[in-house]
Amino acid sequence: MPLREGPNQQTKSLNRMEDYMGDRTFDRPVLVKDGQFIQEIGSLEDAFDFLDEWPRERRGPIFETAFRACQRAYDGQIPLSVARDAVAGFARSVKILQEPLAPLPWMSGTRSGRGGVAA
Q1: Phi, psi of 26 (to 5 degrees)
Q2: Taking Cα atoms as reference points, which of 60, 26, 64 lies closest to residue 45?
Q3: Pairs from 9-14 (Cβ < 8 Å, separation ≥ 24)
Q4: Domain limits of the chain?
Q5: How far apart are the C-alpha atoms of 51 and 86, rounded to whole Å?
Q6: How many CB atoms are located within 10 Å of the residue 46 CB?
Q7: pTM
Q8: pLDDT tens across 51-103, in order?
Q9: For residue 12, what are the contacts with CB-CB under 8 A and spacing of at least 6?
Q10: Comparing C-alpha atoms, which of 35, 51, 58 is closest to residue 86?
C-alpha cells in the first residue's frame, strides 16, 4: 500500500516533524551497518533522519511501514517501542541490521565478593 504523500510531501513531513521533536529516545538503539561503520538509531529523530536519507529507489512497503510507525509514534498513537521495532524490521529486511555485540567478560563479569571482578 503506497504512502498517500508524494516524495516531496514525505520529505517536508519529515522536516516538519524534526522541528517539533522532543526527547523521544528508544529503550535500546537500533544498530545498522553503514559501509564499514555502525550507525546507532537511538531515538525517533534518529529514525526519521535514517529513513529520510534512505535512497528513494530502494524504498518499498517495509520502508513505508516503518515510516508510518514513526509518524504514529510521533503523534502518540502507538508506543515508541513499536516504531523502534518497525525500524529494526526494515533494517533486517534490507540486511543492514547489526545485532549488538556481546559484552566482553571483564565488562559484565561476576563479582568475586571483594568488590572486584572475577578473573
Answers
A1: -70, 155
A2: 26
A3: 10/67, 11/52, 13/71, 14/48, 14/51, 14/52
A4: 20-37+55-100
A5: 11
A6: 19
A7: 0.69
A8: 999 999 999 999 999 999 999 999 999 999 999 999 999 999 999 999 887 66
A9: none
A10: 51
